[in-house]
């Protein structure tokens, strides 16, 4: 799905180069009697290589170029000179990009590190020159091998954002507002559903210059795992978040029920998402007085027995630092253990 410069799914055709032909040249020098074969090998065809680039965050640059062709290997020549290899083509992708076969939908590999390189289409091998085929009984072979053809295939590039914390919630839960307050990101904020039409990333500044990355995932609605609403297109991005922060507004009719609906949609999409660390933040809590909060806590403590929850207000800056502290502890729990 695409909005503006954000693209997270593209189909690409790649073709590697064919190998160069081997040379069948025979030596023809004035002072060399009975010059034998001296044909060189053909160069290999160019590879199509996918390379990770930490500075990219979208597949937008593939939107207008969907075909990639590597160079062909050059032919061999006399004096056993090998032809030049075909030029490789590099396709730079953001970290977290999965590469799939377009026909079978099989995941071929995933790029997760900066500078990581994987060959998606190998160039054809260059043909052998006639110098390789000389023997005692065949001293002047007048033939050489042709180069092997390159590979041609269609692939799918699917981006799954790499973030430490993923914001999960219904539309209008306050995810964009929280992201704008807790990070330097500037997501679109308005008083209507589906304000966020693309994932937004922001860097959370923590104590002692430490940081972690938070992603605002477009709002999920009931039935998103079956394709309803916008959340279906972006559920893939939640798979890459190590911690999930569920945002439920304080004015919700039933806070725990909303949390269960969100959890159910994640489970339907991918049951493994339930293995991630989870935290519930009750947003817009500035509208609650202390007495009402105390009453709500009695009910919430009964329901949220296995997961922590906390009251926050992005607008009033209430509980924001405590939220950062809690998330930092959760993100670094394994390292401390």
Describe this structure in words.
By secondary structure, this protein is α/β, with parallel strands linked by helices. It is built from 6 helices and 16 strands. The strands form 4 sheets. The chain has a 6-stranded mixed beta sheet, sandwiched between helices. Strand 1 and strand 2 form a beta hairpin. It is rod-shaped, with a radius of gyration of 29 Å.
Q: Major sheet: order of its strands?
A: 12-13-11-14-15-16
Give the N-terminus to C-terminus distance in angstroms: 39 Å
Give the radius of gyration: 29 Å
Protein structure class: alpha/beta
Low-confidence region ranges: 187-197, 222-232
Q: H/E series, N to C?
A: EEEEEEEEEEEHEEHEHEHEHH
Question: What fraction of residues sit in β-strands?
Answer: 15-25%
Mean pLDDT: 83
**Number of distinct beta strands:** 16
Inertia-based shape: rod-shaped
List the helices and strands and how they pair.
Elements: E1 2-3, E2 6-7, E3 9-15, E4 48-52, E5 67-69, E6 89-93, E7 97-101, E8 107-111, E9 117-121, E10 152-159, E11 165-169, H1 175-182, E12 200-205, E13 211-216, H2 231-238, E14 243-249, H3 255-269, E15 277-283, H4 290-303, E16 309-311, H5 320-331, H6 333-336
Parallel strand pairs: 3-5, 4-6, 11-13, 11-14, 14-15, 15-16
Antiparallel strand pairs: 1-2, 3-10, 4-9, 7-8, 7-10, 12-13
């Amino acid at each position: 799905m695409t909005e503006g410069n954000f693209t997270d799914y593209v189909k690409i055709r790649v073709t590697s180069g064919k190998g160069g032909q081997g040379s069948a040249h025979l030596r023809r020098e004035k002072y060399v009697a009975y010059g034998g074969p001296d044909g060189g090998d053909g160069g290999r065809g160019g590879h199509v290589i996918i390379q990770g680039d930490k500075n990219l965050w979208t597949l937008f640059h593939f939107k207008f170029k969907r075909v990639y062709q590597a160079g062909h290997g050059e032919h061999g020549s006399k004096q056993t000179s090998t032809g030049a290899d075909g030029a490789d083509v590099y396709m730079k992708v953001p970290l977290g990009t999965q590469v799939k076969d377009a026909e079978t939908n099989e995941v071929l590999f995933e790029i997760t590190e900066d500078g990581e390189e994987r060959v998606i289409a190998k160039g054809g091998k260059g043909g052998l020159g006639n110098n390789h085929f000389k023997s005692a009984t065949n001293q002047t072979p007048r033939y050489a091998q042709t180069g092997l053809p390159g590979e041609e295939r269609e692939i799918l590039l699917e981006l799954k954002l790499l973030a430490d914390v993923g914001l999960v919630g219904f539309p209008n839960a306050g995810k964009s507002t929280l992201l704008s307050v807790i990070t330097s990101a500037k997501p679109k904020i308005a008083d209507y559903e589906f304000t966020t039409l693309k994932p937004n990333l922001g860097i959370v500044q923590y104590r002692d210059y430490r940081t972690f990355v938070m992603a605002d995932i477009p709002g999920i609605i009931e039935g998103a795992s079956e394709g309803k609403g916008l959340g279906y297109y972006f559920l893939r991005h939640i798979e890459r978040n190590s911690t999930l922060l569920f945002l439920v507004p304080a004015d919700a009719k039933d806070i725990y029920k909303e949390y269960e609906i969100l959890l159910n949609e994640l489970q339907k999409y991918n049951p493994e998402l339930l293995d991630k660390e989870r935290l519930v933040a009750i947003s817009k809590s500035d509208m609650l007085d202390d007495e009402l909060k105390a009453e709500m806590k009695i009910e919430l403590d009964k329901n949220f027995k296995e997961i922590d929850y906390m009251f926050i207000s992005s607008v009033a800056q209430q509980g924001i630092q405590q939220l950062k502290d809690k998330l930092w502890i959760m993100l670094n729990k394994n390292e401390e253990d």
